[in-house]
Automatic annotation (TrEMBL):
It comes from Cupriavidus campinensis. Gene3D superfamilies: HAD superfamily/HAD-like, Trehalose-6-phosphate phosphatase related protein, domain 2. Pfam families: Trehalose_PPase. Keywords: Hydrolase, Magnesium, Metal-binding. It catalyses: alpha,alpha-trehalose 6-phosphate + H2O = alpha,alpha-trehalose + phosphate. GO terms for molecular function: trehalose-phosphatase activity. This is Trehalose 6-phosphate phosphatase. Residues 249-270 are annotated as: Disordered. The gene is otsB.
Length: 270
């Protein structure tokens, strides 16, 4: 695969968090953020005139914690929480997760390797430490959802999540793309999990680029091998865009494109 062209000023950039910006950890609370990443995201947010959003399965409050002091536009819990440029987080009514918790807590108590993660309008069971329990977890989630209205299961990497039905990352990206500063730009979404596939489909329908971090069958149109490779690409792009912004008054026709790559990002990857 040819080198990935750097991000250009007309891009609307959407980034997953776990497994994309940050390496996966045995537990969600143990994730570490590379020190340089926050500065790079700040620079990209500035250079793209604010058209950068985090689209994650985590709650927005957790994203803010890991990326502090940044408070970027964000879609949390796969789009169930939504924040544009302002401080207000739009969250749908709670769908009755609480009624399911006793049975899920009992399951986790019987199998210490499992971890229950509670969110504002969702709950997830992680089995990363006991992957052999995947069939058990999937069956248990299907059982508790049998009589639950307005909820659905969302399998991911070593996790099954129960979330509001009809909410996904593709819808969140589409909503961002209808509002400034994202509207009118070419969307690019980077993610790693099967939960990101809805986002890849939407950006492709909008004429953009889906970027898979990892390797598997996917609707994405480009790939990077690892979160470290993704971060390196973001660092290089931020440096090029910052340099371009500093020199554009003196050379208005300058572009931040890698001089070794002649096609644009879209032409090269679509």
């Amino acid at each position: 695969m040819p080198p990935l062209p750097l991000i250009e000023p007309h891009i609307a950039l959407f980034l997953d968090f776990d497994g994309t910006l940050a390496d996966l950890a045995p537990r969600p609370d143990l994730v570490q953020v590379e020190p340089q990443l926050v500065g790079t995201l700040r620079a990209l947010h500035t250079c793209l005139d604010g058209a950068l959003a985090i689209v994650s399965g985590r709650p927005v409050a957790e994203l803010d914690h890991f990326l502090q002091p940044l408070r970027l536009p964000a879609a949390g819990i796969h789009g169930a929480e939504f924040r544009t440029g302002g401080e207000r987080i739009i969250t749908p009514p709670a769908p009755g997760i609480g009624a399911l918790l006793p049975r899920l807590e009992a399951l986790v108590a019987r199998h210490p390797g499992l971890q229950l993660e509670r969110k504002s309008v969702a709950v997830a069971i992680h089995y990363r430490q006991v992957p052999e329990l995947e069939p058990l977890v999937r069956a248990a989630v299907a059982d508790v959802l049998r009589d639950a209205a307005g909820l659905e299961a969302l399998p991911g990497k070593m996790v099954v999540e129960i979330k509001p039905a009809g909410v996904d990352k593709g819808d969140a990206i589409a909503a961002f793309m209808r509002t400034p500063p994202f509207a009118g730009r070419m969307p690019l979404f980077a993610g790693d999990d099967v939960t990101d596939e809805a986002g890849f489909v939407v950006v492709r329908e909008l004429g953009g680029v889906g970027l898979l971090v990892g390797q598997r069958a996917t609707a994405a149109t480009a790939m990077l091998a690892s979160p470290d490779a993704l971060r390196g690409w973001l660092h290089e792009s931020a440096h090029a865009l910052t340099h371009w912004m500093a020199t554009r008054d003196a050379a208005p026709d300058a572009t931040p494109r890698d001089p070794t790559i002649t096609p644009t990002l879209r032409e090269d990857l679509l």
